[in-house]
């Protein structure tokens, strides 16, 4: 041992200067640097990428890692890894031995973006050669040792619940449970307990969830169940289905819980309840809430407590920078909130088929844009306790269209639509596309001052005066579901009407909102709003960005970001790209 130590010291004395010089040789800032290809971390990253390679190449058999050829890293908001590797399709298994198919091998270049502080990594790029014999890539024989950690074919691999792919699978699983049970109302996701995968002919996802019944106005823990469900995906056939699922109600008998556990649980429950009581009293003072009786106050507290659990769930799974909390709607049930403050009724099917908008394909657009900077957006309005969001969305769109056409910004009348639009249901809900059709039929819109907002249908019916009409529209169009195209249309034509899922909006307080799809399904649109711009939230110290839409809401300027909602842009969050339309003024 002493001889080894002396030898090491002699090596440093003779070659230390050169070793030091090489160690501290500067690398180009922001560029890629060669790293050890056979390190444990690189092997794990290479194995992590195999699912993505399988799906990208549409291989019908799972892939095995033969070897990592080279690796590079780049410091960004986290680390980018560029890895070249050799993979082959797995032919069969013999006990613990895996036999590869030497005639179906590929050389692949992959890029993985890792953010260790978020426990997050994603394969961002995959480029593979066509299948070929292994001899064309390497003379090294395929051995069990080369396969590294893929020896146990079909082994379960734990997954991060914040991963977008996992969220999509969970959303599909939740929808499958609803369909198979014939639920009249979709279940509420309470918690993602565990998700793992197995590589077979495709991928089997093993999912454990806690879901709650949504048949009553309040979510009660007594109506919650634990569900285990398997989802089998074969990406090359664009196919996935549920192979099995079972649900049960969690319970513990008294014999399962020790006395000390009981005391600790009881103390924690008391502490939590006291904190909730304090938070509720602060909520009452902040929002000037008045309840008609102690019984009503007690009921509102129970609803508030249930909603704070939703807030915690949203915050724990938030992928952006949004903050959720006790907004002015925190004492409302989901049904009360939907009835009073939403109003997008997607069940109303318009008989008129709208043409698709022409998107300026070759137009270059800026990285950020906001129509508020160009005098095309009126101040934030307040729909009150009337389900008229659809009218506010349509009017915001037309106000912008008219401002661009005439260089004059007018505040137009939502009340006219509530009273006079026979295609929609006033405070009971409606659709922006039908509102546009109704405006064409009515001959146009009066201003807000001539036909002021009341927040309920006028008892006398429609009070439109044709002589007071200031703005008329020529037609209306549906806009693309591609968010890049939506941005192009926005920059050229002005604010756009869109439908969104408002699940996260009930408790939104600020920041860029990016809820997981399982908590904000793009298929459950219930609120009409208007996109007035887009931008990028920058984190200079992390060199990271969050692209977002700037959305004008209709709940007053005390809500959200002075009445605006910043929603993540690029992955169809909350269905923002599913119902996009605009009036046209010629």
In short:
28% of the residues lie in helices and 27% in strands. It has 586 residues and is of the alpha+beta class. It folds into four domains: 33-152, Roll (Nuclear Transport Factor 2, Chain: A), CATH 3.10.450; 164-248, Nuclear Transport Factor 2, Chain: A (Roll); 254-313, no CATH class; 335-584, Cathepsin B, Chain A.
Structure report:
The structure is a single chain. This protein folds into 4 domains: 33-152, Roll (Nuclear Transport Factor 2, Chain: A), CATH 3.10.450.10; 164-248, Nuclear Transport Factor 2, Chain: A (Roll), CATH 3.10.450.10; 254-313, no CATH class; 335-584, Cysteine proteinases (Cathepsin B, Chain A). Helix content is 28%, strand content 27%. It has 11 helices and 20 strands. The strands form 4 sheets. Strands 12, 13, 14, 16, 17, 18, 19 and 20 form an 8-stranded mixed β-sheet that branches. 35% of the residues are buried. Residues 1-21 form the signal peptide. InterPro entries: Cystatin_dom (IPR000010), Cystatin_sf (IPR046350), Papain-like_cys_pep_sf (IPR038765), Pept_asp_AS (IPR025661), Pept_cys_AS (IPR000169), Pept_his_AS (IPR025660), Peptidase_C1A (IPR013128), Peptidase_C1A_C (IPR000668).
Mean pLDDT: 80
> What oligomeric assembly is this protein in?
single chain
Number of strands: 20
Main sheet specs = 8 strands, mixed
Number of helices: 11
End-to-end distance: 89 Å
- Determine the structural class based on helices, strands and strand pairing: alpha+beta
Please tell me the total number of domains: 4
CATH class of the largest domain: Alpha Beta
CATH T-level fold name of the largest domain: Cathepsin B, Chain A
The CATH homologous superfamily of the largest domain is termed Cysteine proteinases
Helix content: 25-40%
Protein name: Cysteine proteinase
Signal peptide: 1-21
Domain Cathepsin propeptide inhibitor: 280-337
GO molecular function, one term: cysteine-type endopeptidase inhibitor activity
């Amino acid at each position: 041992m002493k001889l080894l130590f002396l030898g090491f010291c002699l090596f440093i004395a003779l070659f230390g200067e050169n070793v030091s010089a090489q160690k501290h040789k500067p690398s180009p800032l922001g560029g890629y640097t060669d790293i050890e290809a056979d390190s444990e971390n690189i092997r794990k990253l290479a194995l992590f990428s195999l699912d993505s390679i399988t799906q990208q190449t549409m291989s019908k058999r799972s892939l095995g890692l033969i070897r990592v050829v080279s690796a590079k890293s780049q410091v960004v908001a986290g680390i980018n890894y560029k890895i070249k590797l050799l993979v082959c399709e797995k032919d069969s298994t013999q006990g613990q031995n895996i036999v590869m198919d030497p005639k179906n091998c590929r050389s692949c270049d992959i890029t993985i973006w890792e953010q260790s502080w978020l426990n997050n990594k994603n394969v961002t790029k995959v480029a593979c050669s066509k299948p070929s014999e292994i001899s064309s890539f390497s003379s090294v024989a395929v051995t069990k040792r080369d396969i590294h950690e893929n020896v146990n074919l079909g082994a379960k691999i734990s997954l991060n619940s914040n991963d977008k792919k996992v969220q999509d699978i969970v959303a599909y699983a939740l929808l499958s449970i609803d369909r198979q049970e014939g639920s009249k109302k979709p279940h509420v996701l309470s918690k993602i307990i565990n998700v793992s995968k197995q590589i077979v002919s495709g991928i089997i996802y093993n999912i454990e969830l806690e879901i709650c019944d949504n048949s009553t106005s309040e979510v009660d823990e007594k109506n919650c169940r634990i569900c285990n469900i398997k989802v089998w995906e074969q990406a090359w056939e664009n196919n996935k289905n549920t192979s099995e699922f079972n649900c049960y109600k969690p319970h513990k008998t008294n014999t399962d819980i020790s006395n000390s556990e009981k005391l600790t649980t009881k103390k924690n429950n008391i502490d939590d309840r006291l904190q909730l009581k304090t938070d509720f009293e602060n909520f009452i003072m902040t929002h000037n809430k008045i309840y008609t009786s102690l019984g009503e106050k007690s009921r509102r507290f129970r609803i508030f407590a249930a909603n704070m659990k939703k807030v915690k769930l949203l915050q724990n799974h938030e992928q952006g920078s949004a903050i959720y909390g006790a907004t002015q709607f925190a004492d409302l049930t989901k049904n009360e909130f939907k009835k009073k403050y939403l109003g997008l009724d997607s069940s109303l099917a318009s008989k008129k088929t709208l043409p698709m908008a022409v998107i300026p394909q070759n137009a270059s657009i800026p990285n950020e844009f906001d129509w508020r900077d160009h005098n095309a957006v009126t101040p934030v309005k307040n729909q009150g306790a009337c389900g008229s969001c659809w009218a506010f969305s349509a009017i915001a769109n037309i106000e912008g269209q008219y401002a661009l056409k005439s260089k004059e910004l007018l505040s137009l009348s939502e009340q006219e639509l509530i009273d006079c639009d026979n295609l929609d249901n006033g405070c009971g809900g409606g659709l922006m596309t039908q509102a546009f059709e109704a405006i064409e039929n009515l001959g146009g819109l009066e201003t807000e001052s001539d036909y002021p907002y009341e927040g309920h249908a006028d008892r006398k019916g429609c009070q439109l005066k044709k002589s007071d009409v200031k703005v008329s529209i020529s037609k209306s169009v549906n806009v693309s579901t591609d968010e890049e195209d939506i941005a192009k249309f926005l920059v050229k034509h002005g604010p756009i009407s869109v439908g969104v899922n408002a699940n996260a909006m009930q408790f939104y307080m600020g920041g860029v909102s990016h809820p997981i799809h399982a908590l904000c399904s793009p298929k459950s649109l219930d609120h009409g709003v208007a996109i007035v711009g887009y931008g990028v939230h920058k984190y200079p110290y992390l060199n990271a960005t969050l692209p977002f839409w700037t959305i004008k809401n209709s709940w007053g300027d005390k809500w959200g970001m002075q009445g605006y909602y910043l929603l993540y842009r690029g992955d169809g969050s909350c269905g923002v790209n599913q119902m996009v339309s605009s009036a046209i003024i010629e």
